[in-house]
Design goal:
Length: 197
């Protein structure tokens, strides 16, 4: 099944030029991954599955003006969301040099002119508060909120791609969060409207 069919099955509707960009990203990642070992997704099919996972939140969130992705790795979810939201200014924070180099290469190759790559830890990033902060498989929710506190304000929303531990993480928070958890397959998308309610 090609990427376009998979997106249709999940009711993720993107313009055809964005689907082509995502396919080109998948091809580049597959090529680079054979040399640089950027991700555990070793086949085009596995990369497509990661793309669909990264894109699913576009079915329930609005495009933000600015987006920070913490620990983008090989591009999930930040680079994929940047393709889906071409008008959004996107900052990808990725401290590992080989992954950051890949992200920069893809951004240039796919003409993603609103994407910038910060090859550093998120606590070293300097920027005005973001409207959306995303992250997948980096650390627990409380630490993510703490690490990004100087990059957020009361208008910042958060989108964290989580597994089953998300429920324990929410219970252990020192304050009440205003949030939704959208479940899809084994993924829990934690969408926090603002840090404290």
């Amino acid at each position: 099944m090609n990427l376009s069919q998979q997106l249709d099955n999940e009711k993720i509707f993107l313009p055809s030029e964005q689907v082509v960009q995502l396919e080109n990203f998948a091809t580049l990642l597959h090529e680079w991954n054979q040399i640089h070992n950027l991700t555990g997704a070793k086949t085009i099919e596995a990369i497509y599955a990661n793309i669909v996972d990264a894109l699913y939140p576009v079915t329930f969130i609005d495009p933000p003006k600015t987006l920070l992705d913490v620990g983008t790795g090989a591009g999930f979810p930040g680079l994929v969301l940047a393709i889906a939201f071409p008008e959004t200014e996107v900052v990808l924070a990725e401290p590992l040099k080989k992954r950051a180099s890949f992200l920069k290469y893809v951004s240039i190759d796919l003409h993603l002119c609103r994407v910038s790559v910060e090859a550093k830890r998120v606590e070293q990033v300097e920027h005005a508060p973001f409207r959306l902060i995303s992250s997948r498989a980096v650390t627990n929710t409380a630490l993510l909120l703490a690490l990004t506190s100087k990059l957020s304000d009361d208008k910042t929303h958060y989108l964290f791609y989580k597994g089953s531990r998300v429920f324990d993480e929410i219970e252990q928070m020192p304050h009440q969060l205003k949030y939704d958890i959208v479940q899809k397959n084994k993924r829990n998308y934690l969408y926090i409207k603002n840090e404290i309610c």
